[in-house]
Amino acid sequence: MPQKSSNLVKLYGFGVLKNGVKYDFPFRESLYSMKPITEEIYFALGDSVDTTNAEFEKMNVCKTINTTWDASLKDGLVISTETNKAIQFLKSDVSDLSHAWGLYLQADEVIHEDDYKIIQKDLEYCEANGFDAISFRYLHFWQNHHEIAVTKNWYPHEIRAIKLDSPIESWGDGQSFKNHKKVFFTEARIFHYGHVREQKAYAEKMRFQSSFHHADHLVEEKLKKDAENSKKHTTLYFFGTHPMVMKERILRMNDIWELPVVAEVAIVGNPEKYSKEIVNSIAAKKVSWFNSTNEVPKELQKNMVITNPGILDYFLKRAQPKLKMKSKHAKEWIGDLKFIMQVSSRKIGFKHD
User: Fold this and answer.
1) Which sign, positive or negative, has the C-alpha torsion 194, 195, 196, 200?
2) Which of 31, 127, 223, 309 is most solvent-facing, going by the fewest CB within 10 Å?
3) Which residues, 6+ apart, have CB-to-CB distance to 236 below 8 Å?
């Protein structure tokens, strides 16, 4: 179990939600993923027509305030307005904000337990070096739990932690924050499950969210356009591990939790470049490392992963050429994450401890 904070930095969670049950948000998983590393969690709960508020009372893992969403606000402003209510609620309850940070998760965003130590380390660094916001990497799961959307319109990273003793606030459609002065980019990931849920609830959720942005008479037209654009999404396989809090939900949706273990995997590269935890979790009975593709026996080439591929490897389809987010703002995948994507591209998975 990770320590929630050091003597210096205190981390608090916050978020907003309305009709989380009706639209099948993974809000429980989101909350439980925040809990181990936060002192307290604060939520602004809107005027739901379902049992969302009762679910929060049952879970009893955070402090809540009841709010009323202003349906007249368009362009997504209702989300930033509600998010700022949650921030003010948090600030009003914490007596000392001098070394306090806020971790914001939307109700379809989840943190992986493997990243807790990264978050804590980066918080310490940011507090000591004058940063006031932290931007996280994003994995946007598209229609299932093993493909991520990488088309250029998908944001590759976004601010999700802010220094509370600052004028930083949510803005626009609540996707990010403004008034920050110095942003740090962490390798910690946000697992975004906004487009993976039961189909009826998904259609209703998309209509609900579209109403935040557009006048009522434009909603159906926008939904039709979004449906057409969704056919153009580029996706990549992801068979790395999901946050443990997601296991029950993933299995309930009849999706795969882990790929079957293969007999042997051949990896061309240097194992010292990756964490032992990642290397040891490859779903293979045997993992063999090689310095070059010429050393790999023919019978292992089907399951060959090339960590530093060249043009010939792409031409021969031994490696996937565009293993990255397409956004011009995207920072290159590095280290363990790049390795996970390279292994996943060969349809080889990883095991949970």
Assistant:
1) positive
2) 223
3) 147, 148, 150, 320, 323, 341, 344, 345
User: 277-317, pLDDT tens digit by residue?
Assistant: 999 999 999 999 999 999 999 999 999 999 999 999 999 99
How many residues in total does the chain contain? 353
pLDDT digits (tens, 9 = 90+) for 119-172: 999 999 999 999 999 999 999 999 999 999 999 989 999 999 999 999 999 998
Phi, psi values for residue 318, rounded to 5°: -90, -10
Q: Which of 136, 161, 206, 135 is nearest to 37 (CA)?
A: 161
Domains of the chain: 10-195 (3.90.550.10), 258-345 (no CATH)
| Nearest Cα to Cα of residue 293 among 262, 264, 321, 318 | 318
Query: Phi and psi (nearest 5°) for 31?
Result: -60, -45
Place of tokens 């989300």: 79
Largest CA distance in the chain: 65
Q: Are 37 and 43 in contact (CB under 8 A)?
A: no
- Tell me the two tokens of residue 209: 């969210």
Question: Within a 10 A sphere around the Cβ of 148, how many other Cβ atoms?
Answer: 24
- Regarding pTM above 0.90, the answer is yes
User: Letter for the amino acid at 44?
Assistant: A
Q: How many of the other CB atoms lie within 10 Å of CB of 48?
A: 20
CB 83 within 8 A of CB 174: yes
As a whole number of angstroms, the distance between CA 205 and CA 27 comes to 14
Helices (H), the chain: 27-34, 52-59, 77-93, 116-128, 199-213, 219-230, 247-252, 276-280, 311-315, 335-345
As a whole number of angstroms, the distance between CA 48 and CA 7 comes to 38
Q: Rounded to an integer, what distance in angstroms lies between the CA atom of residue 126 and that of residue 100?
A: 12
